[in-house]
Write a structure and sequence with these properties.
This protein is an alpha/beta fold and 206 residues long. It has helices at 21-24, 30-44, 103-119, 136-145, 160-166, 182-186, 195-205, and strands at 2-7, 13-19, 123-126, 151-155, 173-176, 190-194.
Length: 206
């Protein structure tokens, strides 16, 4: 089992914790990690873009000039794509970009992402993450103390003070154990997680 240090919110080491190899020490599957990121980005796309083809734009029912003898190239409609105001070739239409990964693939991708952070020493375990008031300055000081200014902060439960205090910090996002995903893990320099959140993850994914 991998062993990492446990810090308090001032950055002082207060102990250590052993992480489950079945979650934080798996063989990294880069393909599934890639697919998990693609899935999240694709599922977030609205797919509402739309443009008109030559069949949908108005006008253009008559040939602009006769077929031969004008010196111009032959034209069938002033609403063909090469004309101003013409239709778009292969115009984008509303569509659903989402696709599915099965449960085991999602879990392995998440475990791979967590393992990569542990291997890079960017998985920072905090004894307890809590604030007695909503204060951005205190949250910034905490993250600075553990050297994780651009971080994904993972809590075991909703803490309004911590969430609100981190809301205005650029590059910082808060989430709970039930909402962590591969994209957020990889999109932040470090994962800052409470000791209770680690236990919750190990209970769910063991």
């Amino acid at each position: 089992m991998a062993k990492v240090s446990v810090y308090d919110m001032t950055g002082k080491t207060v102990g250590d914790i052993e992480l489950s190899d079945s979650i934080f020490g798996v063989e990294i599957n880069e393909h599934l990690v890639h697919m998990a990121v693609l899935q999240q980005l694709a599922n977030n796309r609205q797919g509402t873009q739309s443009a008109k083809t030559r069949n949908e734009v108005s006008g253009g029912g008559k040939k602009p000039w006769r077929q031969k003898g004008t010196g111009h190239a032959r034209q069938g409609s002033i609403r063909a794509a090469q004309w101003k105001g013409g239709g778009i070739i292969f115009a984008p239409k509303p569509r659903d970009y989402s696709f599915k990964l099965n449960k085991k693939e999602k879990q392995l991708a998440l475990k791979s992402a967590l393992t990569s952070k542990v291997a890079d020493e960017k998985f920072i375990v905090i004894d307890k993450i809590e604030l007695d008031e909503i204060k951005t300055k205190k949250m910034a000081a905490f993250l600075g103390a553990v050297k994780a200014e651009k971080a994904l902060v993972v809590l075991d439960s909703v803490d309004k003070n911590v969430i609100a205090s981190a809301a205005n910090l650029p590059g910082v996002k808060t989430t709970q154990t039930g909402s962590i995903n591969v994209y957020d893990i990889l999109n932040h320099d470090a994962v800052v997680i409470s000791k209770d959140a680690v236990a919750a993850i190990e209970e769910v994914y063991a």
